[in-house]
Amino acid sequence: MDSATENWKNSFTFLSLISAILYLIHIHFAPQLFLGNEPVRVKKSANLPLRFRSDGTFKILQVADMHFGSGKITRCRDVLDSEFEYCSDLNTTRFLKRMIESENPDFIAFTGDNIFGSSTNDAAESLLKAFGPAMESGLPWAAVLGNHDHESSMNREELMSFISLMDYSVSQINPSVSGPTNSAKGGMITRIDGFGNYNLRVFGAPGSTLANSSVLNLYFLDSGGKIIYQGFRTYDWIRESQLQWLRRVSQEFQGQKDASIHPTDVSTHVTPPALAFFHIPIPEVRQLYYKIVGQYQEGVACSIVNSGALQSFVSMGDVKAVFMGHDHKNDFCGNLDGIWFCYGGGFGYHGYGKAGWPRRARIIVAQLEKGKNSWMGVESIKTWKRLDNENLSKIDEQILWDRWLSR
């Protein structure tokens, strides 16, 4: 063998080795940077913006009250005696995976008490386990806090900061002070009470005339934990600073226009509907003891303070439905002044429940109107629930809003 051939073979072997090393680095370390000798993980970002499917639908999975603890060592509550021995947080994880696989949602909304702070010494580890199936799915997801999330090793600000940095999370700590709703424009407040107040826009179907416009808006609010008010211990409430911010955001959405859309199209003259998500119900929900869809099985645990949230939602005109958690044995929807207020129903197995009453999740589906040549704005919003049984039974399907019926 001559020296030229030998050199060529050595070079080829060397290049092959380098290629293999680079491939392994790409596979195993691409998501990481290094700070000193310690790897720093880079967040995997969701595919944004949120957008309706090409079939004109946008599906949301609501997960209320996972109450996740420490994993397989955390026992279930309020299950049948025959189920207790083998029941743990892993049942909650399994249920979430089943729901994602079965319903194939476009977005997941976690409405508080995601972890049960008193059942874990490490809030970060509990959050990673609780939201694990959502991160593994690669779907965009968002969360608000409940009244138990902060009872471990992180305060509410730290929790929301951590959640916002998790893979595929589109959660936000609070609106940016440099955004369009700050004090520089129209005297808007610069500080909002709580952590986890934000809005997400859902854009029209790809290729449609509204592909570059938000046709559905999702409002997330921090309803707080517990507080002492005038000497009484009570649940917290949505504060005026939050409602003021929300009203301003709603006004901006209602004023949006897209010059590229034909001015005679009816869809351009309809305010984009909105959905709101938070944990603790408002006091008026107590009135919903009749004309409901679902079950009212426990008293509504809310604040003794009425901050006027319902009046704000009504005056805004765009909120069609509100989705809550907190009271695990309630899973009903009821109408207050034209707005549906819906419980998610208890999802997690470490949260209290009712033995023999399956854990459950809520599905929300928005459907676009079919125009002459393109999908237009939202035409209807419906919901149903799935039970964690053998068949993931579907129950209580109902229409929450229909553009044409609401006129």
TrEMBL record:
Top-rank taxon, per record: Eukaryota
Protein name as it appears in the record: Uncharacterized protein
Source organism: Bauhinia variegata
